[in-house]
Amino acid sequence: MMRGHRTGRFTLLELLVVLVILGLLAGYVAPRYLSQVGKSEVKVACSPSSVVG
Questions:
Q1: CA distances from 35 to 30, 32, 38, 44 (A)
Q2: CA distance linking residue 14 with residue 22, whole number of Å
Q3: HSE-up (13 A, CA, CB side) for residue 37
Q4: What is the predicted pLDDT for the residue at 36?
Q5: What phi and psi values does residue 2 have, to the nearest 5 degrees?
Q6: pLDDT reported for residue 50
Q7: What are phi and psi of 17, to 5 degrees?
Q8: DSSP states of the chain as a string?
Q9: Which residues, including other chains, have CB under 8 Å from residue 44's CB and lie 6 or more apart?
Q10: Res 45: pLDDT
Q11: Per-residue pLDDT tens for 1-53?
Q12: What is the C-alpha to C-alpha distance for residues 49 and 44, in angstroms, rounded to an integer?
């Protein structure tokens, strides 16, 4: 027997699919972002002290 579709609620499968997609995006974007932060820290550390302060 098929039940009627409940409106306003997500199934467990739908939530798991969304979590997997968000995890894949985070795994793709986070390393690129963190490497840019590391490069900027190195540039700041190597800049002349007269420019910094």
A1: 8, 5, 5, 14
A2: 12
A3: 6
A4: 75
A5: -95, 135
A6: 57
A7: -65, -45
A8: -PPPPPTT---HHHHHHHHHHHHHHHHHHHHHHHHHHHHHHHHHHHS-HHHH-
A9: 52
A10: 62
A11: 556 666 778 899 999 999 999 999 999 888 887 777 767 766 666 666 555 55
A12: 10
Q: Which residue do the tokens 């800049």 mark?
A: 47
> Which token pair is 15?
């939530």
User: Residue 15, Cα to own-chain centre: how many angstroms?
Assistant: 17
Give the C-alpha separation, 19 to 3, whole Å: 26
The count of residues in the chain is 53
Residue 19 tokens, joined? 């979590």
